[in-house]
From TrEMBL:
Protein name per the record: DEAD/DEAH box helicase
A molecular-function term among this protein's GO annotations: helicase activity
InterPro entries per UniProt: DEAD/DEAH_box_helicase_dom, Helicase_ATP-bd, Helicase_C-like, Helicase_put_actinobac, HRQ1_WHD, MZB, P-loop_NTPase
Keyword Acyltransferase: no
CDD domains: DEXHc_Hrq1-like (cd17923), SF2_C_Hrq (cd18797)
Record organism: Streptomyces sindenensis
One Pfam family cited in the UniProt record for this chain: WHD_HRQ1
Length: 826
């Protein structure tokens, strides 16, 4: 029997192919003119005062496990390089900035020298200005050219909202330059009648990797004048391009560079990143170019008070009688309500769309009990909304009409929301980089700010709120991506061949895996080799082969059954778990029940309802070893890394009470299985090791299962993933290894680099896993240590003490982490 833990991003395979402040990762303030206040505080309370009020309720103070005070810091000014046009400097000064910070001037100097550069500094440290100064200067130079279009620049953002926000900022900054700078957004929301104007006349085009991949590159002849004059490519929030998504974007950028060369251009890449480890290495893997790093943050910062908050235990009991904590969702809704009542402008960041909607609903209900005018001051913001809904919410947040917002990471990425006083983070967001990015949304005008991390009832969050050094003393993670993943590279080779026939000269650009893939693509009759190179042979669009967000198929449309109104979409990969028949779906605070999921037509029909529960899908998983790439002895056991095939099937769903999470019942489902070929790390133990750990056959399955759950929960501390990117399987006797085995695998076709990182940090990773289980105060296991809310086997069996003994014995003979000697590039 296999015990499994499956990622949400399960895809069909394409076939067998008080500590010292961390000064480099805290929120930063903008460089306002000396002597001018950043923003009038009026009667705005201090961050410490806001926290004191939150903690004043009954039992509230005990929920704060740690408070970190990061003091304010002064900045270091410099002067702009002399090649920045005086008109641009004047425009910057009109915006209230007399002098750049030292890192802004250094980045601008590299850009004007023709060096690709990554600016990896803290939130609100002025990264936008660092790349805009050289870009605007170059566009201004180009506008004075006697012939031709002049210079152009391309801006890439991971979200539409960020691109729209940046257009507003650029337009305001460049207003004194007249018609020399013509910014325009070109994405899926751009009206058809405006697109031709953008192609012909805009010289600063703001878009996203999706539109570049599907719209601009396949239509490059229509963009020829723009590409011919392309001088700069700005890649904002580049730390978000990780895993499979980052690998896809890396290949899109190589296609862009290839077409630019075809038109005689060689643009400089300017990347902006939150603080990360080895940003130049990651930026080089993303672009395929050597990149200079600017990471010494010279900007000042306001005071930040950062609280770690653990919800209390309730009187309820969950599966197997385990104690249950109050949900992070309910706790966050309470905090957002209290902050709104205080008049404190706040954003609550939530990991899921459903969570954002639920927090908004709860907060509105509680505010209505106080004052019926208050619920309209709170809203939800998430992906999947229609464009007009997103824009209206962004305007309301900018204007201050909204006091509280429950948002997914769609709002995390750089939208400049000045004047926020606090941020509540509902559950650890998966990486330290994202944590600081979200915390940095408050205090962006230089004032002090409060950040609160509310722990979910799972191993990682529990570990972090009781080990603050893991957040405040550790550097942020490296960005993991693998452009050579064949499941990523193959469709982009087809797309590139459709744009221009591939030649031998292109092989070096796309990477060392190309020679092995081209014959396979020929055999599949996707490419045909002729004298001039490899050509795309099909009538359909080659770009449609690559789903760069890793959705694994076209999105499922969510349609209101009675009216036919389109409510939104959900990724195909998540459809089986999110919009199965009987699932509860939230949209703009309204609850719907899914009446039918039509997988063939990619439509989920819903009707409005008010069930007193939420739903959670359950599944089963089996795993087969295809190839072992690397293995090392761990005493008598072994640690391995290689290729596997995972078969998963969603078989039922649970109904859970709102707020408490109490299980009300389980309903069977009949959905087809899905297969995935990916990469995994796994470890085995022998009979002698089991004897030494006092693990008998009766508890072996539970000990392995518990260790698997906890190790998945802790892996995000060691790789830039979150637990939804990875899955796991534990088997008392696996047919391929013939030993008790625990697998942890990437939830994406071909792998995403996370399992490889786990292999290279296995000793540290599994040591932290053992400590997290052993230090939990529960008796037999709970969601804070070994239970998982999405376990396909209903958290049965689990054996907490057996897992501790098993990991202790495994780690007894573990060698040092392999990457201490041979760290892989990432």
């Amino acid at each position: 029997m296999a015990f499994n833990h499956l990622p949400a991003a399960m895809h069909d395979a394409l076939g067998p192919l008080s500590v010292t402040p961390v000064t480099h990762s805290v929120p930063m303030a903008k460089n306002h003119r000396p002597g001018r206040p950043a923003e009038s505080r009026g009667s705005r309370p201090s961050p410490a005062m806001i926290l004191d009020r939150l903690a004043a309720g009954a039992g509230r103070a005990a929920r704060i496990t740690h408070t970190e005070h990061l003091p304010p810091r002064s900045g270091t000014h410099a002067i702009w390089p002399d090649r920045v046009r005086p008109e641009v400097i004047s425009a910057i000064e009109e915006a209230g900035i007399d002098h750049p910070w030292a890192h802004q001037a250094a980045a601008a100097e590299h850009a004007l020298d023709g060096d690709s550069v990554v600016i990896a500094t803290g939130t609100a440290s002025g990264k936008s200005l660092a790349y805009l100064a050289p870009v605007l200067s170059t566009l201004l130079d180009g506008s004075e050219a006697p012939n031709g279009r002049g210079a152009t620049a391309l801006y890439l953002a991971p979200t539409k909202a960020l691109a729209a926000d940046q257009r507003r900022s650029v337009k305001a900054l460049a207003a004194p330059l007249g018609n020399a700078v013509r910014p325009a957004v070109y994405d899926g929301d751009t009206p058809v009648e405006e697109r031709e104007w953008v192609r012909q006349y805009a010289n600063y085009v703001l878009t996203n990797p999706d539109m570049l991949h599907r719209g601009i590159l396949p239509s490059h002849p229509r963009w020829s004048s723009f590409l011919r004059a392309l001088r700069f490519v700005v890649i904002d929030e580049c730390h978000t391009y990780r895993g499979v998504f980052g690998s896809h974007v890396a290949q899109v950028l190589r296609r862009l560079r290839r077409l630019c060369a075809r038109y005689g251009a060689d643009p400089v890449f300017l990347l902006a990143s939150a603080t990360s480890a080895d940003p130049a290495v990651a930026a080089g893997r993303l672009t395929g170019l050597p990149v200079v790093e600017v990471s010494d943050d010279a900007s000042p910062r306001g005071e930040l008070v950062f609280a770690l908050w653990e919800p209390p235990l309730t009187d309820l009991h969950g599966e197997k009688g385990a104690p249950v904590r109050r949900t992070a969702t309910a706790e966050t809704a309470d905090l957002l309500t209290d902050l709104t009542l205080q008049g404190v402008r706040s954003v609550a960041f939530v990991r899921s769309r459903r969570g954002a909607e639920l927090i908004s609903v709860i907060a509105k209900e509680r505010l209505a009990e106080v004052d019926r005018s208050l619920p309209k001051r709170v809203a939800a913001y998430r992906g999947g909304y229609l464009p007009e809904e997103r824009r209206a919410l962004e305007r309301a947040l900018h204007s201050g009409e909204l006091l509280g917002l429950a948002a997914t990471t769609a709002l995390e990425l750089g939208i400049d929301v000045s004047g926020l006083d606090s941020v509540v983070i509902c559950g650890y967001p998966g990486t330290r980089a994202s944590l600081w990015q979200q915390a940095g949304r408050a205090g962006r005008s230089g004032q002090g700010a409060l950040a609160v991390l509310v722990a979910r009832d799972d191993p990682l969050d529990t570990y972090l709120v009781h080990h603050p050094e893991a957040l405040f003393r550790q550097p942020v993670e490296s960005t993991v991506l693998d452009p050579d993943n064949p499941y990523v590279l193959a469709p982009h080779l087809c797309a590139a061949a459709a744009e221009l026939p591939l030649t031998e000269a292109d092989i070096a650009l796309f990477g060392p895996a190309v020679p092995g893939l081209l014959p396979q693509l020929e055999a599949a009759k996707l490419l045909r080799r002729r004298a001039s190179g490899w050509h795309w042979t099909r009538r359909e669009r080659a770009a449609d082969l690559a789903d760069i967000r890793g959705g694994g198929g076209r999105p499922v449309q969510i349609v209101e059954e009675g009216t036919g109104r389109l409510l939104g979409t959900v990724d195909a990969a998540a459809a089986h778990t999110a919009v199965h028949e009987g699932a509860v779906h939230l949209h703009q605070g309204r609850t719907h029940l899914v009446r039918k999921l039509d997988l063939e037509d990619s439509v989920a029909l819903v009707e409005q309802a008010e069930p007193p529960y939420s739903t959670v899908a359950r599944d089963t998983t089996a795993i087969t070893v295809l190839e072992t790439d690397t293995e090392i002895p761990w005493g008598q056991g072994r640690l391995c890394y290689g290729s596997v095939e995972v078969t998963n099937q969603v078989v039922s769903f649970l109904r859970r009470k709102l707020i408490t999470g109490e299980v009300l019942g389980e309903t069977k489902l009949d959905l087809p299985p899905r297969t995935l070929r990916t990469r995994a790390v796994w470890w085995t133990v022998t009979e002698d090791q089991l004897d030494a750990a006092r693990i008998n056959p009766e508890i072996l399955g539970g000990a392995l299962h518990a260790a698997e759950h906890a190790s998945i929960g802790l892996l995000p501390l060691f790789a830039t993933c979150d637990r939804w990117d990875i899955g796991g399987v534990s088997v008392p006797l696996h047919p391929d290894t013939l030993l008790p085995t625990v697998f942890v695998y990437d939830g994406h076709p071909g792998g995403a680099g996370f399992a490889e990182r786990a292999f290279h940090t296995a000793r540290s990773w599994l040591t932290a896993t053992r400590e997290a289980i052993a230090s939990c105060e529960c008796e037999a296991g709970c969601p804070s240590c070994i239970q998982s809310p999405k376990c396909g086997n209903g958290n049965d069996p689990l054996h907490k003490r057996g897992a501790v003994r098993l990991l202790t014995e495994l780690l007894r003979a573990a060698p040092a982490d392999p990457d201490e000697a041979t760290a892989p590039e990432d």
